[in-house]
Amino acid sequence: MNYETIIGLEVHAQLLTQSKLFCSCSTEFGKVPNQNTCPVCLGLPGVLPVMNQRVAEFAVRAGLATQCTISPKSVFARKNYFYPDLPKGYQISQYELPICTHGQLLIENEGSKKIGITRIHIEEDAGKLLHEHPDHRSVESTWVDLNRAGVPLLEIVSEPDMRSPQEAVAYLKKLRMILVYLGVCDGNMEEGSLRCDANVSIRPQGETKFGTRTETKNLNSFRHIEKAILYETKRQSDVLAEGGRIIQETRLWDPDQEKTYSMRSKEEAHDYRYFPDPDLLPLLIENDWIEKIRRSLPELPDAKKERFIKDFQLPASEADILSSMKRLADFFEKAVSSYPQPRKISAWIINEYMRLIKADETKISSSLLKPEHVGITLKLVEEGKINGSMAKTVLAKVYETGESPQKIIEQEGLSQVSDEGALETLIDKVIAENPKEVERYKAGNDKLLAFFVGQVMKQTGGRAHPGKVNELVRKKLS
Amino acid sequence: MELFELTIHQLQDLLKNKKASSREITESVFKRIQSVENKVHAYVTLTEETALQQAKKADEKISKNGGAIHELPLLGIPIGIKDNFLTEGIKTTCASKILNNYIPPYNGTAVQKLIDAGMILVGKLNMDEFAMGSSNETSYFGVSRNPWDLERIPGGSSGGSAAAVAAGEGFASTGTDTGGSIRLPACLTNLVGIKPTYGRVSRYGVIAFASSLDQVGPLAKDVTDAALMLQTLAGYDPKDSTSLNLSVPDYKKVLGQSIKGWKIGIPKEYFIDGMDPEVAKSMQAAISVLKRLGAECRDVSLPHTNYGVPTYYILATAEASSNLARYDGIRFGYRNSETKNLVNLYKKSRSEGFGAEVKRRIMLGTYVLSAGYYDAYYLKAQKVRTLIRRDFEEIFKTCDVILTPVSPTPAWKMGEKMTDPLKMYLSDIFTININLAGLPAMSLPCGMTPSGLPIGIQLISKHFEEEKMLQAAYAYEQATEWHTRRAKL
Fold first, then answer.
1. For residue A33, which residues of chain B lie inside 8 Å, CB to CB?
2. Domains of chain B as residue ranges with CATH
3. Within an 8 Å CB–CB cutoff, is residue B322 touching chain A?
4. Which of A265-279, A334-348, B221-235, B423-437 has the highest mean pLDDT?
């Protein structure tokens, strides 16, 4: 039987606030265990939470960017369960009244498609457990690091609108892009700043009722999400093929085995005993504030892409890449303002710059290579001062050293040789050294022109102006 | 009269006129403690050494600057703190085995305010475990006795706070009141006890029982002292999201003002069958006094009164079940370390660390929040809570304050209600609804039984209008002499 896969994603995004959700501890990553803690986030007796207003602002930004309705009143609730990484024995989250509802975003995967966002809510992160396994099997002791406890998260829950692993990945990539654009999350999946759980079910093609779903946790890269959903689809269809039925359960993705394992079934599921947190007042958000935040939103990727196509006549594929990272797009636009040749700049960025920064957006802000350097260098090419391949070398050097292109050209003796006298001397030498090739050329083998030009270029260490050499060789041999 | 028998405002006069030093006052209290504490058992921890150091510093301050007494309203005054207030570097147990050796790294806001006002800390006071109880009998450290009759309980949960002040082992104390835990023990020991409006005093640094009901307040020997304590404790705290950013009036100003023409509501639902006849008699006497003072006492009705106790025991236990989850043996407090299995560690640490009443309430609260029961219990109780609050709001449209008894009976004998939780829960029947409504209320002495047990009345004000009940209470107190009586020990 042919099955259709139904996928919904729950994404946890760690927010880029300076301090935690309910205390003033730093959220900085990579500190000594338990350095970023205080009585509040340690859950000591007698402490009370006080909401970090920045978090509400970040949540509203994310909500507006995904077309959500912002609730004028949302309520914090306690999710009760015992675990050593959860100091209070409950997590402060939002339950019945989340801050954002009814959003959507557009994905491109064999055409464009809207994916619904059910809700976005604010919650606090738990700490981390470090297990010691002296014999690599049983746990000897477990250490608790509460640096992460209380760091603000947004949980973004999608509708079950995706129908393939590719759509799921496209959705997550788009969501990540938007969050990074907004400056609310760094999108780093390896460090766990962006985490994803997938709800997967299958149903026979044409069926309108949903099948029983499973929730798969621990999906920490796009590749694993794709693989886990594929695995889960296959597993579920195998179960059905054998006449079994799908059990509603939570499963864990094992990235080494590339399999999912059952963690707990519905019967074993926690009863979280949610109830409104009496220590916190409802979060009230005024319309004026929402509008103020709306006005401060940056141009989002879709709009930027459209503008790049329209204003700069870029091909869609290039506009897509440039608009995928806000800092890359800013870099592009700054370079264009210093040298208004968008196609040339776009080509250089996509072919060269992406390689230099290893497609890592965070490298852009610390990059020694500034957008103006690109403009200056490409202009030198246009003026015939250097050639295209030299431009690449020059800019790579600028990226390394931060020196100006002019200085690098000077230091490395990279300026282009276009002096006709000097070039003619070299061409004469090449002609004299290759009599056989001259003969064949004169006999009608036009292709050998490239050979002579190449030889001259080699003699100049690539610094000769290729057009000029071409012209002179042709003249000499005619 | 010995120094320990005086009130704070009397001591202030002595200090001002250099007729007594803080050191003498403090020594008098610790001498008293030495002679009666083995009978009363009010304290869990005593801090005599630091108290004497603090007294010395207070005296230095006074001798350097006579105005210091006006600037620091509690300068040099020995005060006891209930053991659910966190005190930096001083053991804070909540009268529970689970926190038996817990030393907090910080002072709560209320404690810090008292320290900043110049108080001398006598020690930490006994209480019902996690403030869950009405008799002080659930304390891990054993029951405090009522100084008026050592065979009887002092009330709870702030039982140590009441016993200490009634016995002269401190001039005032702090308490917490979730369903009557300040007012009931104050009533049973002939003291004035104030439960302020929810949100008037910061809860930061006070161990939570039921967050939406808990409120910090003072116990003292008369209205003037209680008002002084409240003045120090009250005020907005950015560390407590539920504290209200409202200025605090000068309570002293209303003391001595007339209540002529005031309308005092007497709710008929608070005169129930089974009420002790002595309590009923004292109430009638109190009404006569207030009438003589020019107030008009009128019968009113609070129709949802009877739903208060069940509503309270759903909401308070629900919140408690969650608030007490942090006592898990992982980071602090008692841990059973015989087991290496996580679930067993939780089970054993909590089973052994909590007492019977606390466990009963955690189980009740866990049950009412469980999937499938939430709507029927918790949600329904929240709705009833709103109805109870509206009852009061309706009355306050026409009345200045409301007058009720505090307790249906005077202090009872130890053990009398311990085997019957329901009977125990009903001792808070007149105080619980005020917490559900978030209103301010206070208890003050209004009589004695023939056998010499104190009886109290309760005055209730509108939200954030503590000054009104204080004004009425002071007027009443000036017209009576019950507050001047001291327990003979």
1. none
2. 3-262+399-484 (3.90.1300.10)
3. yes
4. B221-235
- Give the tokens for residue A248: 């509603």
Question: Which of A 211-230 lie inside 8 A of B, CB atoms?
Answer: none
Domain boundaries, chain A: 3-291, 299-411, 420-477
Q: Which residues of B touch A282 (CB under 8 A)?
A: none
Report the chain A residue with the minimal C-alpha distance to residue B331: A87
Q: What whole-number distance in Å separates Cα of residue A81 and Cα of residue A85?
A: 11
pLDDT per residue over A29-64, tens digit each?
A: 889 999 999 999 999 999 999 999 999 999 999 999
Give the DSSP per-residue string, A456-468.
HHHHTTT-B-HHH
B207 to A36, B86, B92, B130, B142: CA distances (angstroms): 23, 7, 9, 8, 20
* Among B384, B326, B430, CA closest to A84: B326
Q: What digits encode the pLDDT tens for the residues B307-351?
A: 999 999 999 999 999 999 999 999 999 999 888 889 999 999 999
Confidence check: pLDDT of A351 > 90: no
Q: Which CATH number fits domain A420-477: 1.10.260.40, 1.10.10.10, 3.40.30.120, 1.10.10.410?
A: 1.10.10.410
What are the chain B neighbours of A281 within 8 Å (beta carbons)?
A: 241-242
- E strands present in B224-335: 263-267, 296-300
- Hey, is the C-beta of A278 within 8 angstroms of any chain B C-beta? yes
Region of A177 on the Ramachandran plot (φ > 0 left; ψ -120 to 50 alpha; else beta): alpha
Distance from the Cα of A162 to chain B's closest Cα (Å) equals 30
Closest approach of chain B CAs to the CA of A95, in angstroms? 14
For B458, the 3-state DSSP assignment is: strand
